[in-house]
Amino acid sequence: DIQMTQSPSSLSASVGDRVTITCRASQGIRNELGWYQQKPGKAPKLLIYAASSLQSGVPSRFSGSGSGTEFTLTISSLQPEDFATYYCLQHHSYPFTFGPGTKVDIK
Amino acid sequence: QVQVVESGGGLVKPGGSLRLSCTASGFKFSDYYMNWIRQAPGKGLEWLSYISGSSRYTHYAESVKGRFTISRDNSKFSVFLQMNNLTAGDTAVYYCARGNSLDSWGQGTLVTVSS
Questions:
Q1: Taking the CB of the first residue and of the last residue of chain A, which one, N or C, has fewer CB atoms within 10 A?
Q2: B10 and B114 in contact (C-beta within 8 Å)?
Q3: CA dist B87 to A80, A99, B66, B83, B113, Å?
Q4: In this model, does residue A22 exceed pLDDT 90?
Q5: Is A91's CB within 8 Å of B102's CB?
Q6: 3-state secondary structure labels for all residues of chain B
Q7: Contact in structure between B58 and B48 (CB atoms under 8 Å)
Q8: Which residue of chain B has the CA closest to A101?
Q9: What is the pLDDT of residues A35-86, one digit of tens each?
Q10: Is A92 part of the contact surface with chain B (CB cutoff 8 Å)?
């Protein structure tokens, strides 16, 4: 199985900050990675697919990059509604696997 | 618009069974494979299973292989998860999601396994 790791596991940031979250795969997954945002009590929401493509309706302050084993999610200017937990998911091979999540909270 | 809605959760005793349903709308259901994912209280997301559009292919996480069975009925725009021999470790919110990118999720249905 492909193991996914995320760093950091949590971070505190202020509105307007640039935030970067990293996801690493235990083996190459090409660009078959998605990023999801989850708020408490809500279902996850797809932000980025194919590692760097912005899902329809998602603000352009979110961006993704990477290929192979290392990927990043960047929020260019953190907004109040962005405080949430972020997960990466590899869908290169079964079983699909999620990263453990990165919780972004208010400094 | 694309929508998926899960149902069928509830309280079940250890060793019991439960069948979850997920009904989709707003897209050509038979063209998409569908997934089940769960989230235990306070924990991260765990992918459980997928089924292809024609039902020809299925895959399972090791944690549920042999106990859970995924199926679908394209005429009813629905996908199911039959869960047998449940344990406390299966207590979670269960979500269904569309496609290989899991681009649309339902609101989830809570399964509680407790005596």
A1: C
A2: no
A3: 39, 24, 14, 10, 6
A4: yes
A5: yes
A6: CCEEEEECCEEECCCCCEEEEEEEECCCHHHCCEEEEEECCCCCEEEEEEECCCCCCEEECCCCCCCEEEEEEHHHCEEEEEECCCCHHHCEEEEEEECCCCCCECCCEEEEECC
A7: no
A8: B44
A9: 999 999 999 999 999 999 999 999 999 999 999 999 999 999 999 999 999 9
A10: no
Interchain contact, A43 vs B62, CB within 8 Å: no
Does A44 touch chain B if contact means CB atoms closer than 8 Å? yes
> In B, residues 30-59, which contact A (CB 8 Å cutoff)?
35, 44-47, 50, 59
Query: Which candidate in A42, A85, A96 is best for mutational testing of the B interface (most B CBs within 10 A)?
Result: A96
What tokens were used for B2? 């694309």
The single-letter code of the amino acid at B24 is: A
Whether A74 contacts A57, CB under 8 Å: no
